[in-house]
């Protein structure tokens, strides 16, 4: 399917195109070729093709969605997708004036992208690409077909594009966090003595799915173990449980961690979780628009350094949204490999952060809180703000 320009109204652009144009100008980019699922979803206003939601491979190739967006020229925008996406367009038309729902692999998608760039006079332009999300065969085809073009890594520009959330995005992140929190608390209450990690994880998957979230993962520990992988290990009386789950709602991530106990927590456990909470609160106290990201990090780390649990406890904070680690990038290689480029920049309203303190206690096990907060002018709003103490197992 090839829908020609003029069919869709450019006035329905689902993102702040003036801001995107400004970011492209700063990055020296004339036209974008977005090829990652998360960035094409953002540029299409939240759309993601369900057929390839859990996989990319088909036949001898893979699904490669492409959004072509020209700086200052939204009337030249195009979406290049799979042949089956014509039906999606019939039901809910894409905003891009041009649609090519015609592809089954990477090379036909790349060919159509090249043809569209030539048609709009951008065959020798500065083209922003996503190197980590552009297959080598597609890259080679584009490079050979457009020898006069300059291919520029647009990764940072696209991350900056997504860093400030809209109100609609914040609502999806709030719902995702609420659904994940509800699911974790229900799973802890349901789990009983003798139930295995694998059984508890499967129950969480059902809880999230039944609530309308898309389950992605669960990292679970029982007792003194720090191993978070699924296994036949069974929950025993008096043992702690940590449940760290990621799921999404319409593509936006919910990523939180809560603690459970089979029985009643003793004084030591109450004290250990309180130490974790003290570090979390220290971080929260510095979250507001205008605070340098690094100042929030250093304050929380300073509080942790003075704690008796510091030798086996770690603090971490990162941005989140359509993916689990995105701008603002606050810490360098800790633990995910990227530069903390936002440490020296002020936090901005509607950025969203995941803040987590993790204790690997030598005898009591894995004790952690992970929370999601949205930055406001005067502080923050927390999503899924429940169950942050010891939650009793086997009570449902």
From TrEMBL:
<dbReference type="InterPro" id="IPR000994">
    <property type="entry name" value="Pept_M24"/>
</dbReference>
<keyword id="KW-0378">Hydrolase</keyword>
<feature type="domain" description="Peptidase M24">
    <location>
        <begin position="171"/>
        <end position="377"/>
    </location>
</feature>
<protein>
    <submittedName>
        <fullName>Xaa-Pro aminopeptidase</fullName>
    </submittedName>
</protein>
<feature type="domain" description="Creatinase N-terminal">
    <location>
        <begin position="18"/>
        <end position="164"/>
    </location>
</feature>
<dbReference type="Pfam" id="PF01321">
    <property type="entry name" value="Creatinase_N"/>
</dbReference>
<dbReference type="InterPro" id="IPR000587">
    <property type="entry name" value="Creatinase_N"/>
</dbReference>
<dbReference type="GO" id="GO:0004177">
    <property type="term" value="F:aminopeptidase activity"/>
</dbReference>
<dbReference type="Pfam" id="PF00557">
    <property type="entry name" value="Peptidase_M24"/>
</dbReference>
<keyword id="KW-0031">Aminopeptidase</keyword>
<dbReference type="InterPro" id="IPR050659">
    <property type="entry name" value="Peptidase_M24B"/>
</dbReference>
<dbReference type="InterPro" id="IPR029149">
    <property type="entry name" value="Creatin/AminoP/Spt16_N"/>
</dbReference>
<keyword id="KW-0645">Protease</keyword>
<dbReference type="InterPro" id="IPR036005">
    <property type="entry name" value="Creatinase/aminopeptidase-like"/>
</dbReference>
């Amino acid at each position: 399917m090839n829908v020609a320009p003029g069919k869709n109204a450019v006035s329905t652009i689902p993102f702040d195109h003036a801001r995107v144009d400004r970011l492209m100008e700063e990055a020296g980019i004339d036209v974008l070729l977005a090829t990652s699922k998360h960035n094409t979803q953002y540029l299409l206003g939240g759309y993601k093709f369900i057929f390839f939601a859990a996989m990319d491979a088909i036949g001898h190739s893979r699904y490669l969605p492409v959004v072509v967006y020209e700086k200052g020229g939204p009337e030249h925008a195009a979406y290049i997708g799979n042949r089956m996406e014509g039906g999606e367009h019939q039901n809910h038309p894409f905003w891009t004036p041009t649609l090519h729902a015609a592809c089954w692999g990477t090379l036909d998608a790349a060919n159509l992208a090249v043809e569209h760039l030539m048609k709009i006079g951008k065959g020798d332009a500065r083209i922003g690409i996503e190197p980590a999300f552009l297959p080598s065969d597609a890259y080679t085809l584009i490079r050979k077909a457009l020898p006069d073009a300059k291919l520029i890594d647009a990764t940072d520009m696209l991350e900056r594009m997504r860093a400030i959330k809209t109100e609609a995005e914040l609502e999806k992140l709030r719902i995702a966090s609420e659904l994940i929190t509800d699911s974790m608390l229900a799973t802890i209450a349901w789990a009983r003595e003798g139930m295995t990690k694998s059984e508890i994880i499967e129950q969480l998957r059902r809880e999230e799915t039944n609530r309308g979230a898309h389950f992605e993962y669960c990292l679970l520990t029982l007792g003194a173990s720090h191993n978070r992988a699924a296994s036949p290990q069974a929950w025993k009386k008096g043992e702690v449980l940590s449940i760290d789950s990621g799921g999404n709602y319409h593509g936006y991530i919910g990523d939180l961690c809560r603690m459970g106990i089979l029985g009643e927590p003793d004084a030591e456990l109450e004290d250990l979780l309180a130490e974790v909470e003290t570090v979390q609160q220290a971080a929260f106290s510095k979250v507001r628009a205008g605070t340098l990201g690094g100042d929030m990090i250093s304050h929380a780390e300073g509080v942790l350094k003075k704690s008796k649990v510091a030798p086996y406890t770690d603090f971490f904070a990162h941005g989140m949204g359509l993916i689990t680690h995105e701008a603002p990038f606050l810490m360098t290689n800790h633990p995910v490999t990227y530069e903390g480029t936002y440490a020296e920049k002020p936090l901005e309203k509607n950025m969203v952060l995941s803040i987590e303190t993790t204790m690997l206690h030598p005898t009591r096990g894995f004790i952690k809180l992970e929370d999601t907060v949205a930055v406001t002018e005067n502080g923050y709003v927390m999503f899924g703000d429940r169950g942050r103490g010891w939650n009793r197992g086997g009570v449902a």
